[in-house]
UniProtKB/TrEMBL annotation:
It is an enzyme of class 2 (transferase). It catalyses: L-threonyl-[protein] + ATP = O-phospho-L-threonyl-[protein] + ADP + H(+); L-seryl-[protein] + ATP = O-phospho-L-seryl-[protein] + ADP + H(+). It holds the Pfam family Pkinase. Residues 337-349 have a biased composition (Low complexity). GO terms for molecular function: ATP binding; protein serine/threonine kinase activity. Residues 11-271 form the Protein kinase domain. The lineage of its organism: Eukaryota, Metazoa, Chordata, Craniata, Vertebrata. Its EC number is 2.7.11.1. The chain crosses the membrane at residues 192-210. SUPFAM superfamilies: Protein kinase-like (PK-like) (SSF56112). SMART domains: S_TKc (SM00220). Residues 324-349 are annotated as: Disordered. This is non-specific serine/threonine protein kinase.
Length: 349
């Protein structure tokens, strides 16, 4: 951890602001300055320290919630870490759009928001960090003011993409899903899929994939995600530009390796020329307002979908081809005249 301090000068916590992946987020005030902050309490563990390290490394990056201080303390007789962050008083991204009422939300505004989120992801990916949990409740505004800044928070699932990387993945589809080609590409592409879903909701007010059964993530919904089954139905999509639809298609590719990288995303005309994106009024605010009761379900579905995409390589047991006793593999060995050619093919990857 980059910085650890004792609790003597720590701000006093007040009300609960939210729940992160690994711990509560509380409102607090600095004793000396009176500054309002957010305080996250994590019970000390390697996972908690990893979260702090990744967030600390990203802190100060564009459109990322800043860490102000980190303290060590005891809580219920357990060692804990207290992360003091800037307080994001403007609420969640989609709540802000919901609250607009009759005021039109335009395609250009959607492009500017996506550029801001993309800027945060670009910074993280340049630091070899995949966030892996980019979703509506982790996108917060600094204040209620018109010029408030949108920022990304909660690094509970963040992962360093170069750490413990599998240099030459040596596996067959019998043991690991074939599309999992290595942590860097896979984990970063998880963030790109998230950008596609958030962009889709921004432009119409409902998600591209949804469950028909009331489950957070149904087998049918899983299948639609895997097959990339979604559409651009009217009237919500009738006026949206072809550029926007094309960008969504490139982000929601079913094969993670075919999705745009963050650099390609930031260089797409709809993002890097957002000032000339048409100011077409969208249905988003109306749809979000009408579907307010279902919004928690939408967030739950996205959380579940992201959970199925995350692959933790330290938990994946990859069988060695030389010692494997798989029947099909043994057949192939006999056919090819021994195990040398099988392992040779693997080493040449």
């Amino acid at each position: 951890m980059s910085r650890q301090q004792r609790s003597r000068g720590a701000p006093r916590p007040r009300q609960v602001l939210g729940l992160g992946v690994n711990g509560k987020v509380l409102e607090c005030y600095h004793r000396r300055t009176g500054q309002k902050c957010a305080l996250k309490l994590l019970y000390d563990s390697p996972k908690a320290r990893q979260e702090v390290d990744h967030h600390w490394q990203a802190s100060g990056g564009p459109h990322i919630v800043r860490i102000l201080d980190v303290y060590e303390n005891m809580h219920h007789s357990k060692r804990c870490l207290l992360i003091v962050m800037e307080c994001m008083e403007g609420g969640e991204l989609f709540s802000r759009i919901q609250e607009r009422g009759d005021q039109a939300f335009t395609e250009r505004e959607a492009a500017e928001i996506m550029r801001d989120i993309g800027t945060a992801i670009q910074f993280l990916h340049s630091q070899n960090i995949a966030h892996r949990d980019v979703k509506p409740e982790n996108l917060l505004y600094t204040s209620k003011e018109k010029d408030a800044v949108l920022k990304l928070t909660d690094f509970g699932f963040a992962k360093e993409t170069t750490q413990n990387a599998l240099q030459t993945p040596c596996y067959t589809p019998y043991y690991v899903a074939p599309e999992v080609l290595g942590p860097e590409k896979y984990d970063k592409s998880c963030d790109m899929w998230s950008l596609g879903v958030i962009m889709y909701i921004l432009l119409c007010g409902f998600p591209p994939f949804y469950s028909n059964t009331g489950q957070a993530i149904s087998p049918g919904m899983k299948r639609r995600i895997r097959l990339g089954q979604y559409g651009f139905p009217n009237p919500e999509w009738s006026e949206v530009s072809e550029d926007a639809k094309q960008l969504i298609r490139l982000l929601l590719k079913t094969d993670p390796t075919e999705r745009l990288t963050i650099t390609q995303f930031m260089n797409h005309p709809w993002i890097n020329q957002s000032m000339v994106v048409p100011q077409t009024p969208l249905h988003t605010a109306r749809v979000l307002q009408e579907d307010k009761d279902h919004w928690d379900e939408v967030k739950e579905e996205m959380t579940s979908a992201l959970a199925t995409m995350r692959v933790d390589y330290d938990q994946v047991k990859i069988k060695d081809l030389k010692t494997s006793n798989n029947r099909l593999l043994n057949k192939r060995r006999k056919k090819q005249g021994g195990s040398s050619s099988a392992s040779q093919g693997c080493n040449n990857q």
